[in-house]
Design a protein that fits this description.
The protein is α/β, with parallel strands linked by helices. It has helices at residues 9-20, 45-54, 72-79, 90-104, 109-119, 147-153, 175-183, 198-203, 207-212, 232-238, 245-252, 280-293, and strands spanning 2-5, 27-30, 36-38, 41-43, 125-128, 135-140, 143-146, 162-166, 186-189, 215-219, 222-223, 226-227, 257-261, 271-273. Helix content is 38%, strand content 18%. It binds guanosine-5'-diphosphate (GDP).
């Protein structure tokens, strides 16, 4: 099974899935459209959150970074007048350094991710959606800005006029991902932002076509018309779809089993489940129900 993932909702579900499925049968394909070079190193926020979740290291209060991490390097850089767009923890930064070193030595992002995953003793396969760079650009009344400058730098406050994915037109799956796409029969589109997380993955050349031949299960990231967290409704309206499960469905395309929250007003074919994951137990329960559907 392949799981399409962003950095918060789907990693929560992965906690349960990895409890009940053989990790050898699981490949997580992760959004890279929020990646950003910071202080000389490539930060892949969604890939990192997936890796930390699967390694048991994730800070579950924020769903990014390593639990108990310190920020001494970041603080020292700030004291030296070097501003960073995001606060990177010291242990987190070690991953970015290793990844960037591997990239500079000639490895692809897919190969570098595999090395980092192995070093963190992550069992399921974790792959970036593409080795080609993609950047989420948000248009606001103050001008265009990278997703991280909008979400962290501007605290997600300016109205969102448009969203475009720079580089997505030219992005293709890595040879390793192509091989996985040819072989796998089931895809799970996790409960992640359909505009900025699962949207870019589905936009990579060949991925939608590959899903046509698979059984596709999707879990909505919305609780009725509200997100569990984050800016999904605002982003959905900015790309011209309603901020509800009809909008999620429209953005995802082919889905065979559409899992929505119990409070959803979706009238089309769907399966209503309790999709809130506050604990590992919630995640295991939802994962079991999804696996049963498949
Ligand atoms: P990002 O990369 O950090 O933006 O994270 P994702 O795109 O993976 O996840 C953000 C989405 O996850 C938001 O739209 C949330 O509504 C959704 N989400 C967060 N927690 C839950 C949950 O417990 N259940 C479900 N179904 N969705 C959730």
């Amino acid at each position: 099974m392949i799981v399409l993932s962003g950095g918060t909702g789907t990693p929560k579900l992965l906690q349960g899935l990895t409890e009940i499925l053989d990790p050898d049968g699981l490949t997580v394909v992760v959004n890279t459209a929020e990646d950003r070079w910071v202080s000389g190193n490539l930060v892949c926020p969604d890939v990192d959150s997936v890796l930390y979740t699967l390694a048991g290291l994730i800070d579950q209060s924020r769903w990014w970074g390593v639990r108990g991490d310190t920020f001494r390097t970041h603080e020292q850089l700030e004291r030296m007048g070097h501003r960073e767009v995001m606060a990177l923890g010291d242990l987190d930064r070690a991953v970015h350094i290793m990844r960037s070193d591997l990239l500079h030595s000639g490895l692809s992002l897919t190969e570098a991710t595999e090395r980092v995953a192995k070093a963190l003793q992550v069992k399921p396969r974790v792959m970036p959606m593409s080795d080609d760079p993609v950047a989420t650009i948000i248009a606001t009344p103050e001008g265009e800005m990278h997703f991280q400058d909008y979400w962290i730098g501007q605290k997600g406050e300016p109205p969102v006029l448009k969203i475009r994915m720079e580089g997505l037109d030219q992005a293709g799956p890595s040879p390793e991902l192509q091989e996985v796409l040819q072989r796998e029969k089931v895809a799970l589109i996790g409960p992640s932002n359909p505009v900025t997380s699962t949207g870019p993955i589905l936009g990579v050349k060949g991925i939608r076509e590959a899903l046509q031949k698979m059984t596709v299960v999707a879990v909505s990231p919305l609780a009725g018309d509200r997100p569990f967290s984050g800016p999904a409704p605002r982003f959905m309206r900015a790309v011209g779809v309603p901020a509800d499960d009809y909008g999620v469905r429209a953005l995802l395309g082919k889905v065979d089993h559409f899992v929505v929250s119990e409070e959803s007003r979706h009238q089309g074919p769907c399966v209503k489940l309790n999709t809130l994951m506050r604990s590992r137990e919630d995640s295991i329960r939802l994962a079991e129900e999804i696996v049963e559907l498949i």
